[in-house]
UniProtKB/TrEMBL annotation:
Keyword ATP-binding set for record: yes
Lineage of producing organism: Eukaryota, Viridiplantae, Streptophyta, Embryophyta, Tracheophyta
SUPFAM superfamilies: Protein kinase-like (PK-like)
Annotated keywords: ATP-binding, Nucleotide-binding
Domain of life from the UniProt record: Eukaryota
Protein name: Mitogen-activated protein kinase 1
GO molecular function, a single term: ATP binding
Nucleotidyltransferase listed as a keyword: no
Length: 141
């Protein structure tokens, strides 16, 4: 079974795909689901253990599968934190804590939390163009 993402045709289909892969227990605490309709719908689904990532990605490095299990958890509060992801053995060849130290304090991005998504996207695009002038030239062509 080859799968690289979980694209849904609509909100319900997307939710079904996620639950199908990650699984959901009948007595699962779903207080983190803010949408009342989604909350009720998920509660109505039958108990599911999900699909083991190793069967979805049979040729993947076992350490990658282990990291996926920790990152792709339905309840966001139970997911592995970014710091732990960087310290995971699978990331050892990609991350050097001496060269990229972990921040001691939260990072202030310099704008308020109420900035709209479109504004953030535009700001990110402008930042990328600042560091990649070739991209700016290509986008004008």
């Amino acid at each position: 079974m080859a799968m690289t993402s979980l694209p849904g045709t609509n909100d319900i289909n997307q939710l079904e795909r996620i639950v199908n892969v990650l699984g959901v227990k009948g007595n699962a605490d779903l207080n983190f689901v803010g949408n009342e309709h989604a909350h009720k719908y998920i509660k109505s689904l039958p108990h599911s253990l999900g699909i083991p990532f190793a069967s979805i990605y049979p040729n993947a490095n076992p350490l990658a599968i282990n990291l996926l299990k920790k990152m792709l958890v339905f309840d966001p509060a139970k997911r592995i934190h970014a710091t732990k992801v960087l310290q995971h053995p699978y990331m050892a060849s990609f991350y050097d804590p001496l060269f990229y130290p972990i921040a001691d304090d939260p990072i202030d991005l310099g704008f308020d939390d109420d900035v709209k998504e479109d504004t953030i996207r535009k700001m990110m695009w402008e930042e990328m163009l600042f560091y990649n002038r070739e991209g700016e030239i290509a986008s004008r062509a």
